Amino acid sequence: MSTKGQSLKEVFQSVFASSVIVICLILAIFIYQNVFGNPINFEGGNPDGSPIQGNYLGIIYKGGAVVPILIAVNLILLVFVAERFITLTRAKGRGRISAFARKIQSLLQENKIEDAITACDKQKGSLANVVRSGLHRYRDLQKDTTLANDQKVLALQKDLEESTALELPMLSKNLVVISTIASISVLIGLIGTVLGMIRAFAALATSGAPDALALSTGISEALVNTAFGITGSCLAIIFYNFFSSKIDSMTYKIDEVNFSVSQTFAESLSK
Fold this sequence. Notes:
Strand content: under 5%
Shape: rod-shaped
Radius of gyration: 28 Å
């Protein structure tokens, strides 16, 4: 990929990430006001009053101003989880990676370079891209008469390493967003919890009989924010570890095939 193409791709990814955050925040505010804050969820049709008993939408609405932020955080998480699923599925290619790796190794043992390149074209994905680049270099180095054998092997290894370095960032792209959500979701929920407890204690501190509505609202705000924050954090941790394991597995396969290509090439030169 050219430098211009890479820069355009980076700009697009940056715009995509920024757009997702803004759109999710707007959507979260809309959901909070028009779904959770719908008058039918409250006694007397008044969102300022108490939620109808057992109506969880109204209870969530009473979580206060931090709730839309937590909704936005969870929506952002879902968007980037979907993006990672799509990206890693495409990076995997059309067939099973282990079967593809075995096929490439078998074709190289038989010195069928062109067939191996054709298999890469059919497989697609990150592993196939790395192997295809290495195989083109493999073929060129076989015909090269100016370099010593050890220099040819080093040149092939360098090409494979460079191809791998270009593919790996795409695999881990946006994982930082998911890991950040895993950290901040609980903290944002904790802010809402503290604000709710402040409201609850303020209701208890009034002279005479405590304000029951303000007290219940404060407790609801505290519990709702806690629940949202913990939920977002748990989901983010689960998906982060899931994607990390998938990436580690794919990276291991890339390294395994790269080593196999290098070893086969070195053996072919010694014959």
